[in-house]
Write a structure and sequence with these properties.
Layout lengths: L5 H9 L9 E5 L2 H16 L14 E3 L2 E7 L5 H9 L7 E7 L10 H13 L3 H15 L12 H8 L9 H8 L13 H15 L5 E7 L7 H5 L1
Parallel strand pairs: 1-5, 3-4, 4-5
Antiparallel strand pairs: 2-3
Helix pairs in contact: 1-2, 3-8, 4-5
Amino acid sequence: MPLIQRAELAKWLAGGGMEQGLQVFLFFGERYLCREAADLLEQTLLGARRDQEKGNTSGEKKQRGGVVHPIDGDQEDISRTLGQIMNFSLLPGRQIYRVTDSRLFNSKAVADKIWDKAVTAHEGGQAGLACKHLQSLMDLAQLAADESLTDLGPSQWKELLDFAKPVGDLSWVDSLIAGSRGLRDRGKGAGGVANLAERYLASLEKGLPAQNFLLLSADTLDKRKALFLFI
């Protein structure tokens, strides 16, 4: 798909941009602006206002034009999402799979930026956001949930994350990770997220079922990755 600036998105949609038959979209940059742009595209795809249906506790947003499946990329089972977008749905209308904070575009090349975001979030009192970034680093290092980032020696840290291990008191890292032990081990095994990104690429090259749409967002990503270049 073409690269569209956020300020140009509304005009592109109004001018019939969706007539190109695009089904995969990637929003990258500042998180709030990505969410705002994705909201606009979502409403365009559905072509209707949300129905506030009582009794809907599934987390899915049921609408006249289809269903939005919101997925938190931090806790996402990437393989499961891939299976969903590649299969035909029995639900009526368009099926929009909206993944926020996707990990598919992370790599060691941006690990230092992810660390900086974790530090900034921690210093700003945003423990949840800091923990998300730390979990992304654990994915990149292919550490299990019961392993520790801070236990990595300087040479291991450099090898696994491609930047020098920070100095100083890192006890806050262990504290945040310990508070998220319930998260499954998402990055270890089968080549981790990198292997899943390759599977995504192979599947998307085949094409999605006509009613399925994939909206991905990421505020940190490696633009050299094959999946990014394909999109």
